[in-house]
Each structure stands twice: as structure tokens, then as C-alpha cells.
Write a structure and sequence with these properties.
Elements: E1 2-11, H1 17-27, E2 31-36, E3 42-48, H2 50-62, E4 68-77, E5 86-89
Parallel strand pairs: 2-5
Antiparallel strand pairs: 1-3, 1-4, 2-3
Length: 90
């Protein structure tokens, strides 16, 4: 199991990043959440098997069409296994 905490910066709000990230994460079978931060960045926690988490990180580095990701800060964390599904937080 792997858990990654990501902060995505750039033009990522207003282009459906949260919703697309949730769809990608759910499709990969991950648990976690994604939310917009007040300063325009997006924050997400993704937890699951190593390969799907790595695939999700790759998606976050690129973003959906219309997004311009300028940076992704990633910190590895110990899996908590207490996350239910993948949610959008506000």
C-alpha cells in the first residue's frame, strides 16, 4: 500500500481538475479525496496499491485539457486504510 499527498499548482481550478481527478482515482481503485485550496492550488490524498497511485501521480502532473500544471509537490505518507472511496471535499 502507498499513500501520496499532492499539492498541484498552476491553472488547475476552473477546468474540472477536481472532478476529473476523482474519476481517474476511482477508475484506478484508489481511496482518498481532492479539494480546491483558497490560493488556487488543488490538494489531494490518494491511497492504494503502488502502481495505481503512481498512475494517479502521473495524471496529476499533466492534468485535464485546459489545465496548466506548473508544479506538483508530493509527500509520501504511511497508509491509514481508513479512507472510504474517493471524494471531493469543499
Amino acid at each position: 500500500m502507498r499513500r501520496a499527498h499532492l499539492i498541484i499548482s498552476g491553472r488547475v481550478q476552473g477546468v474540472g481538475f477536481r472532478y476529473r481527478a476523482r474519476d481517474i482515482a476511482e477508475g484506478l481503485g484508489l481511496k482518498g479525496w481532492v479539494r480546491n485550496l483558497p490560493d488556487g492550488r488543488v490538494e489531494t490524498i490518494a491511497e492504494g496499491e503502488d502502481a495505481p497511485v503512481e498512475e494517479f501521480v502521473k495524471y496529476c502532473r499533466k492534468g485535464p485539457p485546459g489545465a496548466h500544471v506548473s508544479g506538483v509537490e508530493i509527500s509520501e505518507e504511511e497508509p491509514l486504510n481508513d479512507l472510504a472511496g474517493f471524494d471531493i471535499e469543499y
